[in-house]
Amino acid sequence: MKTILTYDLRIQQSLILLFLATILAAIITKQEFLGVIIIVEFFLIAIAQYSLNIIKTFSKKYVKTDSRKVYVFISTYVVIGFLILILSSLFKFEDTEQNLKNIFELMVMSWIFLSPVLIIQSLMISFFDAKNIVNEQP
User: Fold this and answer.
1) pLDDT of 100 above 80
2) Cβ 85 vs Cβ 107: under 8 Å
3) How confident is the model at residue 1 (pLDDT cuts 50, 70, 90)?
4) Is the pLDDT of residue 32 over 60?
């Protein structure tokens, strides 16, 4: 686990560069299968960043900054909302007034705005962590 946390900045940078390269390749080649790869890479970035930041939040080795707390709060909103969306699509609910559908549409719209912000914020947190690791005390 310590090795992954040691290289978390490089892992995130590599995933983001791969994501951007795939987007560029999709634009240039206009291959449809690259769209699926872009979605998979996006979720890989999200899983990696969320997991690493949750681990760091509960670790005594890393400084508890407001930025990390905000990141964890907002990203947890996105993760829980996404899981609720998946569960609601598995179970068909009667929503005659379309209230549930409207709520989910608003949630998805907020994710579109929040995703790039969360990606950048996670990178900034990792840059900060690389320079400010708290020394472990026995």
Assistant:
1) no
2) yes
3) low
4) yes
Owner of token pair 């997991």? 51
CA distance 52 to 77: 16
Contacts of 54 (CB under 8 A, 6+ apart): 72
Q: Do the beta carbons of residue 49 and residue 118 sit within 8 Å?
A: yes
Hey, what amino acid is at 133? I
Alpha-carbon separation of residue 101 from 19, 95, 98 (angstroms):
30, 8, 5
- Give this prediction's pTM: 0.81
Do 59 and 95 touch, CB atoms closer than 8 A? no
- Cα–Cα–Cα angle for 67, 2, 20, nearest 5°? 60
- The answer to whether residues 67 and 125 touch, using CB atoms and an 8 Å cutoff, is yes
Cβ(136)–Cβ(61) below 8 Å: yes
